[in-house]
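EI: anyone free to look at a 169-residue chain?
SC: sure, send it
EI:
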Amino acid sequence: ISWVLYPIYEKDIIEPFAGYSFNKSHAACYALIAYHTAYLKAYFPTEFLTAMMTSDEENMERIVLEVSEAKSKWIDVLPPSVQASLKHFTYIDDNTIRFGLKAIKWLWDWPIDSILAARKEWWKFVDLEDFIKRVGKEVVNKKSLEALILSGSMDEFWPRWQLFANIES
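SC: here you go
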């Protein structure tokens, strides 16, 4: 008698099921991604952290967390360097990651590409004057030069305070 008073339509059965089954399929995909991520983190920690740092280059708070995690796993994160760093974080070996130039605040793609092109042509920069001459004054402005100096990217040339004091000249 109740089915006569309250008829059950097909849409009343399918719509709630469709909403619920979508969540299950979505959860299965996320579970698979979580499994793969955990596997990579457990068996390839240096490569995993390199990829994580590269994906979080714009977020310095995340970079700080990931560098501290690398240190807790006895993985060295080498400082940025205009002589050795590439655009993104770089896997060196199982115990070493090189800091990428793109993670430096106030340093954009154009100066980084110019630095890499100048370094590719001659490999090493001799000093700050050679760096500016080869990269170009129009590319490396005061702001990007300050960022490179304060990040430690030019520590091979002179102490930071001397470089920073001579930016104007």
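EI: The longest strand covers residues 90-93.
SC: 👍
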